[in-house]
Amino acid sequence: MRYSAVSLLRQGLAGQTGWPQAWRSPEPKKSYDAVIVGGGGHGLAAAYYLACVHGMRRVAVLEKSWLGGGNTGRNTTIVRSNYFFPESAAIYDFALRLYEGLSQELDYNIMLSQRGILMLAHTEHDMELMARSVNAMLLNGIDVELLDAKQVRAEVPLLNFAPDARYEIHGGFTQRRGGIARHDAVAWGYARGASGLGVDIIQGCEVTGFDIVAGRVTGVQTTRGAISAGAIGLAAAGHSGVLAGMAGFKLPIQSYALQAMVSEAVKPILDTVVMSSATGMYVSQSDKGELVFGAGLDLYPSYAQRGNLPVEREVIAGMLEMFPAFRRLKLLRAWAGLVDVCWDYSPIIGPAPVQGMYLNCGWGTGGFKAIPAGGWMLAHLLATGQHHPISAPFDLSRFETGRLIDEAAGAGIAH
Amino acid sequence: MADLARTDLTTTITAPGLTIATTTPGRLFLASGITIAPNTIDAGRHWLAPDRVLALGEPPPAGFVSDVTDGFVVLDLTGPAWPTLLSMASTLSPTALAEGHCAQTVFAGLTLLLAAHQGGMRIFVERPLAAWLLDWLTQAATSLA
Amino acid sequence: MKRLPGGGRIDRTRTLDFTWDGRKLSGFQGDTLASALLANRIRIVGRSFKYHRPRGLYGAWTEEPNGIVDLAWPDGRHDPNARSTLVPLEAGMAASGVNAWPNIRHDALGLIDLFHRFLPAGFYYKTFKSPSWETFESRIRQMAGLGTLRPDADLLHYDTRHAETDLLVVGAGPAGLAAARAATSAGLRVMLADDRAAWGGSLLWQPHDIDSAPATDWVAQTLAGLDGATLLPRTTVFGAYDHNAFGLLEQRRTAANSWAAERVWMVRAKHVVLATGAIERPLVFPGNDRPGVMSAAAVLQYLREYGVCAGHEVVVATNNDTAYATAVALAEAGAIVSLADARPDPGPVALTAQSHGVRVRPATIPVATGGHHGLRWVDLAPRSALGTPERVRADLLAISGGLSPAVHLHSQAGGKLRWDEPLAAFLPDAARPGQFFAGAITGTPSLAAALAQGHAAGAAAAHALGRTVTLAAPRTPDAVAPTPITPLWFVDVPDRRQWIDLQNDVTLKDVALAAQENYASVEHLKRYTTLGMANDQGKTSNVNGLAALAAFTGRAIADVGTTTFRPPFIPVSLGALAGLRHGKLFSPVRHLPSHADHLANGAVMREYGGWLRPACYQRIGETVADAITREAAAARASAGLFDGSSLGKIEVAGPDAAAFLNLMYYNEVANLKPGRIRYCLLLRETGVVYDDGVVARLAPDRYLLSPSSSHTAGVLAMLRAWHQTDFPHLKLAFHDTTAAWATYAVSGPRSRDILAKLTTDIDLSDDALPHMAFSEGRIEGLPGRIARVSFTGERSYELTIPAAHGPALWRHLLALGAADDVTLYGIESLSVLRAEKGFILIGTDTDGMTLPVDLGVTAPLRNKHLDFVGKRSLLTPDALRPDRRHFVGLLPEDPSFVPAVGSHARVDGRSHGWITSSCHSPALGRSIALGMIEAGRARLGETVEIFHLGHISRATLTAPCHLDPQGARLHG
Question: How far is the alpha carbon of C492 from chain A, nearest alpha carbon, in Å?
C-alpha cells in the first residue's frame, strides 16, 4: 500500500485496520544468492539496491538484534558531503543526492531537513585550514561557503560572541545542502522497500561463523541455522573486527564508544546544524524540539555500547561554550554507539581477503550520512564482484600501498 | 653586571576554612635513577615514576639531575576545607594525601603533583599554568562561602 | 480538592505567594509547586504534546508526566520545562502552562484532537513527502517542544564534587536506612543519598513500628547513629556507569555568591546498595487521561506530605493491595471513598478499608470517565460484564496498576532484568559485582523484608571489605501477606482511547498499530510510537506499553523485554553537568614568563598551541598588518627581540641516549658533536612528519631536545612510550624542563653588537660559537646557555636563563639593544621572516599526510642505515610515487597581491595542491607564498592558476627559499 495523506484519511476512517506490515518477518531459507550481515542502514540499503537496481531478490539481511538498532539508531542524524578529497566528495555527495530523493524513492518520509551545516573556525589558523577545505570542495563540485565572523553571527545569533568566550569565533563555512534526517526512518524505509521487493530480513539472527572452503566463502552459521550463499556482504558497524576474526582476517580498525545525547524538547531555537573544531562538538535541534548533540570518542577501545560520565560532561561543557543559552536545558538521555575507526577516517569498501566476501565498514563516526552510497556500493560488489568506480579508492589494499584518503589530515587533524 | 632580579608570582586566596598561598619552599630538581616507594615523600623527594623523583631542597648528589626550581609555582592549601576544594577539582581522594604521601593527578583539568604538607595539601604546578590555575582556585573558593 | 486544616510536613505559618498563568495564588513553606496548585484547585496544568488534550497532575514526584510548566524565579532564573512536582515552592515564583495558545485552559490547538484518528503514531512517516518534508517542517516544529527557552545566558556557577566511598546507598527508605545502619556499624565509609528533603522514603506516609518505636523515631535515631556517613538529602543518583561510578545531582538548600542550587557529584563506590524502591504504574482504561485521574500513591503523598486532599468524592481503582492505604487515608480525611478492585477476592485489605467506610467493589474495573475540564464521573463495570457499567460521581479517580521496581541504575550499568509473572514486575536479574539490592526494588511487598534485605546488603558490603556487622537487623511486626496482583494491562473495549504515554499521547491503539505493522520489537515500538521518549522518560508508561505489545504480538512479556534504561534517571540541567568548565576556566592556557611585559609593550596576544603569545606588538596608529611588516623589516635591518620561552626543552640523558634518539629521529643524531645543534624531523610510524625542532648535544650521554611549543607534551609522551614498551633495556631518562627556562632570541645584523654588551663568560666569537652551536656559562651572573640557531635567516642568538629571571633579562636586552634599534617582534612577524627563507611551520606547511620526501628532506632515508620510527612507511608505493605534493615557493604574478592561505593551484580543472603560507615580504618588497604542489620540484618555473572561492590569479612555482639561499646573512 502506498503511504500518503489519502491513505491516512482512509485508514483513519477504517480504524487503522488496513495498514500492512512495514516488512515481513520470514523464516530464513536454506540458501540465498547474497547474504548481508548487519541490518542497519548500510546493510538494508545494500539489500534494497541489490533488489531494485540489480534485480537480485534471493537476498537475506541477517540482523543479530532488531533492525536499525545499531549505529543507525544511535547517531546524531547529520547528513553532509563537505569532505576534502575528490574521492570522498564523490561518495558522500552521491549519498546526499540519493538522500534528496529518498523519501519519494522509498515512499517513506525520512524527514530530510537540509537546513545547512555550519562548521566554526576559532583562530586565524582554523580559517586558513577552512579556506583550504572550502576551495578543495568547490573544486570537487561541492557547494560550500566560507563565512566571516559577522556572517556566522547573522546565521546563528545564539552562538557565543561574548568577550569572555574561551574560543573566539573567527568565522566558519557552511554547506547549505547539509542538515539532518530521521535516522530510524532511513532504516525502516529501506527495510520496507527491500522487504517489499522480496528481500528476507531476518532479525534475531546472529552470525556465529563462516563456511570457507579453499579461500572462498560458501555460507554462514547463525543462531537460526546454517545458510549458504555465494556472496556475503559485511555491514555490521561496531562488529566488523569480530566478524573479520571469524573469517580469519584482521581489519585495520579500532572500535570505540561514541556518545550522543538529547536534551528535553523545547520550541524551535536552533535552525541549523553547528559543529565546532575547538571543542569537537556538533549540535542540531530535532523536529521534535530536542537538542541532539555529541562530540568526541570515549578513547578506550570497547565493545560496550555506552560511554562514561567524564566524557559526557566534557561534551556538554563544549557545547555550552558555543551556546551558553542552553545551560538551563536538561539532559534527557545519553547513549552510545560503537564506531569502527580507520586511521584515515575513511571507510573500507571492497573485497575481503576471503573470496566471495565483501566489506562495507570502517565508517567511524561518519556512517549515517553515507548510508545510501555505502549500500549502493556494497550492492554493486555483491552483484558484480567488482568495485563501482566510486568505491575503488576505499579498498582495503590502500593500507598496503599507503594510498590513504586521509580525511583526518584534510580536516587539519595533526595525527 | 646587571641585577636580573627574580619575578615571582605571589598571592593568597582566602575563603571560609581555606587559605591558598604561594610559597617558596626551596630549590626543586628532577632526578632520575632514584627509586622510592610509589606515591611517597622521602626526605623531600617526591615520587614521580618508578625511577624518577622531584627533589625539594638539596639536589641528589649523583645521577641525572635537572634544576627545575623556576619551573614550578608551589601553592600551600591549609584549613579544614582543603579536602572540599580537592573534591571539586579532582577524583583523587583526600586519603591519598595522608602525611608523607604525594600523587600526580588531574586537578582542575591540569596534570600536576599534589603532596601532603603539614596537615594540608601542597600543589606543584608548572609555572606557565599557574596564573590560570589561580583563576580557577579563586572561582572555586567562592563556593565555600 | 482542598488543603486540610492540619497534617502534612508543611509550615502553615509561612505563606508563600506565587502566580500561575498570571493569577495570584499562595501556598506554604514545604509545598512543591504542584501541591500548591492542587491546594488551589487547579485542575488543568498542561496540554499533551500531540493532541493538546487538557492534562491535570497525575503524580507527586519524579514520575509526573503532565505538570511541566514554564517557571521563573524572582532572581531571574528560568526553567522552560520545570517539573512542578519536584520544584519547592518559593515566594515570587511565576509559573505558567506551556505548549498552548492562548493558554492551557482554552487552547485553540485543542482542535487537533478532533482529527486524532488521522494522526496515529508515526503518521508523519506516511505523508509529508510531497513536495518535500521541508514544506511542512517549520509549522510542525512550531508545534513540537513543550516550553520555550529564554536565550539570555544563565549566569550561575555550577558546583562539582568527586568522592569515593566504601558503600553508596541509593535511597533512604527503610531498606536503604537499614543498609547504611549496618554498614556504618562495621566502620564502613558510607554515603547515603535520597532525592527527598525528608528521610524515610515510604515510611513518610504510612504509620509503622520498627524496633518497637514509631517509624519516624526509628528514622531519626538511625540517621543520628550513622557515624561518619555522608548524608545527601535532595540528591538524585541519576546515572550508573562502569565500575560502580555514579553521577548524583544534589539540590542545595541555598544558592549564594552566584553559585547555582545544583551540584553534580561523581562518586566511585566500592559497593552500592540500590534501595531505590518502586514506581507505581497506572491502570490503562478508556478516559484514563482526564484531569482528576491520579496515581493512588501520589494521592497519598499529597495527603501526608502536603496536607492536600485531592478529591472529595473519590473512586480508587486498583488491581493490587497498595492503593488501599490511599483509600483509607482519604476516608480518614473526610472524603467519600469507593474502591473498585479488579481482583475477585481482595482479601484482608478490603475488610480494613470497609471498616473505615470505604465501599469496596471486587472484580470491578473502570471503563470510562467523563467531565469537561476535569473529572465528574467514572463508569465502573464488572470485569466479566464490561457492557453494564455503573456510573459513579467522582472528582478524583486514584488508580494503581501495580508497582514497577526502579531498576534503572542496575540496567544503565548493563544489568539484566527478568520478568516475574506472579509479581507482574521486572526485577533485577543477577546483581553486578559490587552491587546489592534491597527493598521494593526486589519486588518485596513487606516492610519486614525490606528491613531484612537492607540489613543483609549492608552486612554483605561490610563482609566484602573484611568487616563484620554485629548489630541486629531492625524488626517490625510481620504483616499479613498481601493478596497477589491481578495484571490488568488494558480494558478490552475497542474504539475508546486508552492512554499509555500521557505526555507523548501514545494510546493503546498506537501500540496495536505498531504490532500490526511489525514494529514488533520493544525498541521499534518505542521509536515508532515515541512511547517513553518524553521528558518523563517513560516512568509511568514503559511497562504498560510493552505488556500491551506482548498481548498484541502473542508473546509473553518476558520475551518482549524492555528497552535499555539510559542515564540520567531524571533530566539534569546541562549547566550542572558542565560544572566549572565554562568561560575562561573551560580549558587551561599557558603564559610566558614575560607575559606581563608583553602586555605592557602593547602585544596583540593570541593563543598558539595552548600558549598565549605575542602575535605582534601593535603601536598606536598602525594596523596589525602594518606592525607585522614593520617588525619583520626591522629584524633584517638592525635587530629584533623575540620571546621563544614556549619552545620545548626536554633533557635526555643516559649511556644509551644517543642510540635511542637515533631510533626515534629521522635524522642521524648519534654523530652530533657535543656543543653542536642539528635541525631534525620526528616522524610517526606512518612516516608523517610529526614535529620538527633542534637537537643539541650537551655531552656524549646528554642531549637537549627542542620540540615545537605545541608538541612538547606529545613528543615526550612518544619518547617515553617507545622507551617503555619497545626499548626498556636501553638506559636513559627524560626530564621536561620547558617551564624552568626562559629563552629569548636576538636576531639581525646588529645582534652581535647587542650581545657584546652582555656580561657573560661565554665566548661569543664565531670560532667559539659558530652557527648551529651553543655554549653554557653565566649570563649576567645567572646559569644559562647561548645558542646560535636561526629561524629568521639572520645571525641569531638564543639566550636561555632560569625562568624567574626571564622578565628582567627581557628588559635588560631591550635596554642594551636600544642603541642598536632593537625591535620587539611576535609570532606573525617571525612567520613572515621564516616564510621568506622557505622554512616550514609544522601544522601550517605540513599536515597529517606530509612525508619527509615531500619537504625535500631525503638524505636521511638514503644515508641512515639504522632503523628509525616511520622508516618502513617511507618505502610504500604511495610514499615513492613521483606525483606526491612537494613543498615549493610561489611568486604571484601580481607582486602586490597576496593570495589567501588555502588557495588551491587549479590545473586541468582539478586541484594540484594548495598555498600553505603567504604574505607581503618586506625584504623582497613583494608578495610571496609557500605551498604543497603535486610534483612541484619538477615544475619549478611553471605558472599555475590560483583559485580562491572562485577568484583566479596566477603564480609561478619556485624553490621555497625566496631570500639569501646561500645563507650569508646567518654570518653577517
Answer: 16
